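Quarterly update from the structural biology core.
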Amino acid sequence: MEAIVVIILFLFGGWILRALIAGGKSAVTGQSFQESYRGIADWTTKLENETFRSDNNTSFDFKAIKAKGLIPIAYSTSLSVIVNVHDITDENKKLPLISFIGDLKEPHSSVFMQKTDLGLFRPDTGFTKWVEMGGVAPMFLQPPYGGNRKLGINFFLYDTNNPIKIHHGFLDNTSGLIDYRQFEINHNFELKGYLEKSEDIDNARALSVKIAIAVAMSDGSLADEEGDTIKNWIKTTISAYSKETQKELKNIYNTALKDAYKLAQKNKLVLSDLTSSLRNYNEIQINYDTIDLCYKVMAADGVADKDELRIIRKIGESLDIDISELDKMKDKSLMSLSNEATQNSSIEEILGIEKSWDKERIKKHLTTEFQKWNNRISTLNEGDERNNA
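Predicted structure, tokenized:
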């Protein structure tokens, strides 16, 4: 579903935008406008289902906000309209929706907002026919949670010269507000919500911590350096968030660390279950970050343990990490270790040689490895990494 939305936006983003804002732009020029208040009903608004079709027969459904009647102003002024949407499924917690269309967002956030300047109006004027003021296409919005959601489509009519202020979907300043109406609809979202995605990422990173513990304790114990490496990774990972969010994430990841440690002590930490769960989140970058963390844990105690090398390679394969990328991360870790530190590992584990290979394949692999490391020596600065290479 998400891929389809992206393709549609890429191909037809321009006319989608024009379709959703065209109604309001035509309000002051349409034949429905009347300059005398006589015979014009009171101001009213409604929401209607509409379908927009392009010249190439591509179409999409949207909700059109329409207005009719005497405009509720007592003085000549310019008018503007803002339309946004809240998820009101939980009556006690209204949440904004994210826009996939760049021009239909708040100025400094990704929250959906459609703003249209209608132009100059005088008092005692209005519309004798329904005029479209704006539109909302739910398929181009991301809710906080997927599935069947109750939405509140908000319509704000205000004085352009005394603008209202909306921040992250919520009204900050109402001084210039002339009319407000919320229309309620239900929509079934096939894609995941942004809070679900956030929760997925948090849960996936918690699995990264558990997998790193499994690597660290493959020898039966958790060295101080290995524990510190994982704790530093947690600290770095949460550093970009607010203090409140940092506190929440720190609790999630530290709990994952403690739980994994207890299970590993009892030999009940099942690595295959962890990698299977992580793979199900389909967070490719986190998969790579997990392997990178595992190699840092391996190098933390200064020893390239053969069991750790073998386990990390197995994890990488389980997470569908490209073998060449896996080798690059391994090589980077090995360069931080001294030659003495690799003595506990077999030469096959260090060089990535499988026991099932015949001599010809091993020779070909060794030739490639020699060329690779010889080239690296010439590009590295003098020091430990060059000596290790």
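The CA atoms of residues 5 and 140 lie 7 Å apart.
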